[in-house]
Design the sequence.
């Protein structure tokens, strides 16, 4: 069920290990700074990253280029989380818990970038989200076929509700959040609304 996403390199070409570490430090600092102040400057991001302003400008010509790269990087983490969690062989409930937890970690850890990615028109980002949507629908249809979800459930509506639950929980999440507890809250809410009575713990 899982598909291989292309790597989304910063700047369109591979970087040396030291340069890649610098870029990642800048992106992580940008996430922290912009989450607290969306109008933060390149200079503030450089300071938070512990690098010279010229280093940031050498890697990212403009502030917009930096934010675009941050959005793309977070989307890559999101895609990797889904690809790593989804499986055709594991029970659907196990997969549902696993993918929910992994996606929550990305959405909470990269809150600014993931919010921006949701409305991005970048073709590669749109392609990732379209693929994730397809994987989610396939997982929910498999859950329905194995009796975890009721046979009368509209899978598209279930997926939209599932997405909304993840979004709401991630919006209020912090790096110190208990992701396992939040995952249980999401899955329990989803299955109490759409699941077959008595099947919420099946397959664990």
Sequence:
């Amino acid at each position: 069920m899982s598909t291989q996403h292309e790597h989304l390199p910063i700047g369109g070409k591979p970087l040396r290990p030291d340069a890649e570490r610098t870029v990642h430090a800048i992106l992580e600092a940008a996430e922290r700074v912009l989450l607290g102040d969306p109008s933060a400057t390149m200079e503030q991001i450089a300071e938070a990253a512990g690098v010279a302003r010229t280093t940031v400008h050498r890697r990212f010509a403009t502030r917009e280029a930096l934010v675009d790269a941050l959005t793309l990087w977070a989307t890559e983490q999101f895609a990797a989380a889904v690809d790593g969690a989804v499986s055709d062989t594991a029970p659907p409930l196990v997969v549902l818990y696993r993918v929910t937890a992994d996606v929550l970690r990305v959405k909470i850890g990269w809150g600014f970038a993931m919010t921006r990615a949701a409305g991005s028109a970048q073709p590669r980002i749109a392609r990732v989200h379209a693929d994730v949507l397809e994987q989610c629908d396939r997982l929910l249809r498999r859950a329905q076929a194995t009796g975890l979800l009721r046979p009368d459930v509209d899978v598209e509506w279930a997926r939209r509700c599932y997405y909304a639950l993840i979004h709401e929980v991630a919006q209020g999440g912090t790096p110190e959040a208990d992701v396992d507890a939040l995952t249980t809250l999401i899955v329990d809410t989803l299955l109490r609304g759409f699941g077959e009575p008595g099947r919420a713990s099946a397959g664990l």
